[in-house]
Design brief:
Layout lengths: L1 E3 L1 H20 L3 E11 L2 H9 L1 H6 L3 E6 L2 E8 L7 H15 L4 H16 L10 H13 L13 E3 L2 H8 L20 E4 L6 H11 L2 E6 L17 H6 L2 E2 L12 H17 L3 E6 L2 H9 L9 H14 L1 H11 L10
Parallel strand pairs: 6-9, 7-8, 7-9
Antiparallel strand pairs: 1-5, 2-4, 3-4
Amino acid sequence: MIVVDMHAAHERITYERMKRALEAQDLKSQPLLVPVSLAVSQKEAALAETHGEELLQLGLRVERIGPETLAVRQVPALLRGADTEQLVRDVLSDLIENGESDRVEAVIHELLGTMACHGSVRANRQLTIPEMNTLLRDMEATERSGQCNHGRPTWTVVTLSELDKLFLRGRNTGMTASTAKGTKPLAICLMGPTASGKTDLAIELCRHLPCDIISVDSAMIYRGMDIGTAKPSHEELSQAPHRLIDICDPAETYSAADFRRDALREMNDIVSAGRIPLLVGGTMMYFKALLHGMSNLPSADPVVREALEQEAKERGWGALHQELERQDCGGGSHSSE
């Protein structure tokens, strides 16, 4: 199945049509009722005087009216609402640096893009079947119709297997509690920094997909730590409950290995219910532990730790480090560790 973004597609079509129309009639100039006076350097004034014909081809009529003064009398018609002074200064800067300027063309193309965007069908507009067919035929006839002029794709392909996963349907890729041997169930990971909008996006996904959210945040696991953690509000949690939030007191120890164990348990529960685990958070160590596992090492022993700290008080950390080097000569340990 091919899904088309009708606004992006129509925007590209409109943009290309406007660009062809502009090229066919060249750049038309708009005389200014009141010329714009610019104070410039003598070098810039001389440059504008020397390149007067080239500037006129760009739709700019610039005259030198003093040793360090220019008057702008005409601008490209498409740019009559633009900042004329800044445009001319940018063009002169390009001429000084490169000997030529594509500033006007670039600004005009940017303006065409804005006009095409505002002149295209909107996202909430429901097209008729004939309008849809016309849009598809125009896409076939338009150059670079695969992207809008902002670089976003205008269409994408959704396979049957991807549709099955979204709706938890049959075929061979369906996600059920009894997943085929060797096939991992679908899960979605949504990661990013604090206050980047993850919670809003996760709640929106839950409105459209059968997802249950698992928090992947090393601060949100603690009860009472609501300030500075961007923890979801009571209203947000009522819309989309989050698992692994408020599960520990701040005085308790909770490791990445603990998270992996708890997250896998929650994921299995969600999959058993025929739903999709949606893992949301910004603790990358937790994501890494979940995706790649943990090294097979013994858990931290508070008794051993206390004994080592006591020994360090008596002998010094340097002596313990030397002993570590003797026991693990190839471990590459450093005293700063």
